[in-house]
Design brief:
single chain; alpha+beta; disordered C terminus; six-stranded mixed sheet
Length: 481
C-alpha cells in the first residue's frame, strides 16, 4: 500500500466514513479524481482486514452531451471495473433535454440526476457471494442503511465552492462549502489536492481520461477553476489552501451557531429531520432577538426551509426583510421565494405559503379516467372541454390530478416555449382568488393540461404519435358540451 492510500484511509477513519459491513456506491466518471478514489477503495478492500468484506459498486453516468467521447469514457470505466473486480452499472440520460424541461442549467440538472442514480443504487445494493469449491451462489441482501455513496470531491473543489458561494451572495455560514460526510455521502479525498491525486495515479501506473467539457469556460465552476483560481495563485501560491481554511472556519462557526439556536429549533420542532414541508412555522420574536445576528439568520433560514423544502435562492435580503418584521407593527408582511410569505402577528413572525398563490390544502373536486391505445390518423381527436387526448410516449412519470404549485409551468408553443402557471392565469385574466382551485393534470412540475383552459403543446398528438392516452376529467356538476 502506497503512502497516499494510507493517508486517505486515515482520513476515512478520522471522519467515521466507513464501518465494517458497509457497502459503498462510487461515482466514477473516468477522470483523475474518481479513478483515484476507486483505486483507494479497492486497496482498502484488498489490504485492510477490518474492511475486507467491503462491497464496492461503481456507477457511471453518461450525460449524452459529448457523443463518442462520452461512449469512450463509459468503456474506459467498464474495463477498469472488470480489471479491479468491481461491479459496474451505467445510467444514461439526455441532460440537455432534462435541463430544458426543468428550467435548470446543465450543471444543475446533471448533478440532480447523478445523485438520484447514486441514491437508487445505494438503496438497492446487494452482494452475490460464491461459496468456495461448491459452485453454488447465494445472494446476500445488504442493509441499505449501511450503504455509503462515495464521491471524489477534493481540496481544489472545496476552494472553488467557497469562491462560487461567495460570489453568489452566500452568508458566512454558507462558505463552509463541501463537508466530508453528509448523510450517507462520503468524500474521502476532500483534504487532498488535485496535484497529489495525479501524482498518486502516476506512481501506481493508472491511466485516466479528461472530460473535454472541463476545459470549457462557459460553465461557472470551470471559469473559477481555469481562470480565477490560477490568477489568485499568481498573487499568493497558497490561495487555495487559504480558501479551504476559510471553509473550515465557517464549518466551526456554523457548529457554534447551531448550538446557539438549538433551544429555538426545539420550540419550532426544526430539529426532527422531517422531510415533509410544514404549512407554516411560527417564530417567537423575543426568542429570536436574544440570538446573535448570525444565529437569527440561521433560525429564519431553517424555518423557511421547513416550509418550502429548500434553501436555494433564499438570499441575505430575504432573511433581513423577515428579521426586520420583528421591529414592525402587527400585520406587516414580506413576500418570499417559492410562494412563501412572512407576516408579523403580534409577538411572532409567521412564515407560510401564500394562500393567494397556493392553497395546497384544498382538495381537488373530481377524478381522472384514462385509457391508452394505439393511434392512427383515422382516430378523431376529442374537442370536448373535459376530455383530452395526449401522446402517451411523452409522459415521463405517472400523471397526477392536483392543484397548481409555485414551480408549475406549461409548454405553450411547438418550439418548446414555456410559461409559468402564475403568468398564464394572469394573461387569461383568471381571478387571483380562483387560481389555487383550478385542477391541473401534472407530469412532475410540467403541466399536461390546465383543466378547462388548455393542453400543453408538448403532449399534443402529432403525425409521429404511436400511442395515445385519453383523459376524462369527471367532476360533479360539469356536463360535456
Amino acid at each position: 500500500m502506497v503512502k497516499f492510500e494510507g493517508q486517505i484511509i486515515e482520513y476515512i477513519r478520522e471522519n467515521a466514513m466507513l464501518h465494517p459491513g458497509n457497502a459503498v456506491v462510487v461515482g466514477v466518471s473516468g477522470g483523475a479524481d474518481s479513478v483515484a478514489l476507486l483505486r483507494v477503495l479497492v486497496s482498502i478492500r484488498d489490504n485492510c482486514l477490518d474492511y475486507q468484506d467491503l462491497v464496492i459498486k461503481v456507477v457511471h453516468i453518461n450525460h449524452m452531451i459529448r457523443g463518442a467521447e462520452a461512449d469512450r469514457d463509459e468503456n474506459f470505466v467498464r474495463d477498469l471495473c472488470e480489471k479491479l473486480r468491481v461491479d459496474f452499472k451505467v445510467y444514461k440520460k439526455d441532460i440537455p433535454q432534462m435541463a430544458s424541461e426543468l428550467h435548470l442549467t446543465e450543471e444543475e440538472a446533471g448533478r440532480i440526476y447523478r445523485y438520484q442514480c447514486f441514491e437508487e443504487e445505494a438503496s438497492a445494493i446487494s452482494e452475490t457471494k460464491t461459496e468456495v469449491g461448491s459452485g453454488e451462489h447465494s445472494e446476500v441482501k445488504l442493509d441499505s442503511e449501511k450503504a455509503r455513496i462515495a464521491v471524489a470531491h477534493n481540496k481544489d473543489d472545496l476552494a472553488e465552492t467557497v469562491l462560487y458561494n461567495l460570489v453568489r451572495g452566500s452568508s458566512l455560514l454558507g462558505l463552509a462549502g463541501i463537508k466530508p460526510v453528509r448523510g450517507r455521502i462520503i468524500r474521502p479525498l476532500l483534504m487532498t489536492s488535485r496535484n497529489e491525486i495525479e501524482e498518486y495515479l502516476k506512481e501506481i501506473g493508472q491511466e485516466f481520461i479528461t472530460d473535454s467539457t472541463n476545459l470549457e469556460t462557459e460553465y461557472a465552476r470551470n471559469k473559477i477553476r481555469l481562470s480565477i483560481l490560477p490568477a489568485l495563485r499568481e498573487i499568493n501560491e497558497g490561495a487555495s489552501e487559504h480558501l479551504v481554511n476559510i471553509a473550515m472556519d465557517a464549518t466551526r462557526l456554523g457548529d457554534d451557531v447551531r448550538k446557539e439556536v438549538e433551544t429555538e429549533y426545539k420550540k419550532l420542532n426544526l430539529d426532527e429531520g422531517d422531510s415533509e414541508n410544514e404549512k407554516e412555522v411560527s417564530i417567537d420574536i423575543e426568542g429570536m432577538k436574544a440570538l446573535s445576528s448570525l444565529a437569527q439568520g440561521e433560525l429564519v433560514l431553517t424555518a423557511m426551509e421547513k416550509v418550502c423544502g429548500r434553501r436555494k435562492d433564499i438570499t441575505r435580503e430575504h432573511l433581513q426583510q423577515t428579521i426586520s418584521l420583528g421591529d414592525m407593527e402587527s400585520g406587516k408582511s414580506v413576500n418570499l421565494p417559492y410562494g412563501m410569505i412572512a407576516e408579523r402577528v403580534y409577538g411572532r413572525i409567521i412564515i407560510r405559503k401564500n394562500s393567494e398563490d397556493l392553497d395546497e390544502e384544498m382538495a381537488v373536486i373530481g377524478r381522472l379516467e384514462t385509457e391508452s391505445f394505439d393511434y392512427d390518423e383515422s382516430i378523431s381527436i376529442s374537442k370536448k372541454e373535459y376530455t383530452k387526448m395526449i401522446d402517451y410516449d411523452k409522459i415521463n412519470s405517472a400523471l397526477c390530478l392536483r392543484l397548481p404549485q409555485p414551480e408549475d409551468y406549461i409548454v405553450i408553443s411547438a418550439e418548446g416555449g414555456t410559461k409559468k402557471l402564475s403568468r398564464f392565469f394572469t394573461s387569461e385574466k383568471v381571478e387571483r382568488s380562483r387560481r389555487g382551485s383550478v385542477p391541473v393534470v401534472a407530469d412532475g412540475n410540467e403541466i399536461v393540461w390546465i383543466v378547462g383552459f388548455r393542453l400543453s403543446e408538448r403532449y399534443k398528438v402529432t403525425s409521429e404519435t404511436r400511442r395515445v392516452m385519453r383523459i376524462d376529467y369527471v367532476a360533479e356538476g360539469i356536463k360535456e358540451n
